[in-house]
Amino acid sequence: MHTAKIGIATAASKLVITATPSSTVTTTASGTSSFVFTPSPVNEALIDTTTASFSTVTNPTASTPIGGLVYQQPVTVEVGTQTNSLIPQLLNAYQYKFENFTLDSPSDFALGDVVYFNHTGLGNYSCTLEKAKVNDVAKGAYNNLFIFISYTGNILKVMHKGYLAIPNSAISSWQTGRTIYLDSSNKLNITPTSDSGNWVRSIGFCIPNTENKKIIWFEPDTTYLKIR
């Protein structure tokens, strides 16, 4: 209500303001339950973890509304297992991506194939990607070996060192703790080739695990032996 009175003899004004009723805003807490997640490493054999966790809860008590706004819903923040190692980031340095790489027959390659770059002077990188073969020392014996990861949209991805779960199509035999070689079928094998003229080279070993997977540590030796 607003009234103003101005008299002739007395130049004065009177202002009266009354707000009825007062405005109140009440918030309703969401009925959706909170989401809880636990960070976990990709390779548990690689990362040391700590089970440090903490929980912070705020629960304000009801009081006189300030500005007509009241919020009493507790806020909880939880942090689960956290890693204390930077090794995963370091291993990413051994996974290479080559953009605009020309691969003539992409269907000939699959995850887990052992490959090498052959200097041919062709393409953007002056080389081609080929599968390593133990029956010829020029086909991987003294080359830097990689594991083929993928080829999508002219982007080639390979790995030089690290952990990998090998598909059954790329491995002949696997046994916990054994050294891995390349056999005459161009597959990973715990038994090296024994044919005359073939080359033998350690390229990693089998990793114990409880996941029933053929997990290997891939790290090719820099030396090789040729069978007489």
Describe this structure in words.
The structure is a single chain. This protein is mostly beta strands. A five-stranded antiparallel β-sheet has the order 7-11-10-8-9, with no helix packed on it. Strand 13 and strand 14 (188-189) form a beta hairpin. The protein has a domain at 90-226. The chain is 2% helix and 29% strand. The relative contact order is 0.13. The protein has one helix and 18 strands.
Q: Major beta sheet, specifics?
A: 5 strands, antiparallel
Strand order of the largest sheet: 7-11-10-8-9
On the 0 to 100 scale, the average pLDDT is 77
Distance between the termini: 110 Å
Q: What is the number of beta strands?
A: 18
Could you tell me the strand content as a percent range? 25-35%
Shape designation: globular
Radius of gyration: 34 Å
- Derived from helix and strand composition plus strand pairing, the structural class reads mainly beta
Summarize the amount of helix as a percent range.
Answer: under 10%
* Unreliable segments of 5+ consecutive residues: 45-55
Query: Which H/E pattern describes the elements?
Result: EEEEEEHEEEEEEEEEEEE
- Number of continuous helical runs: 1
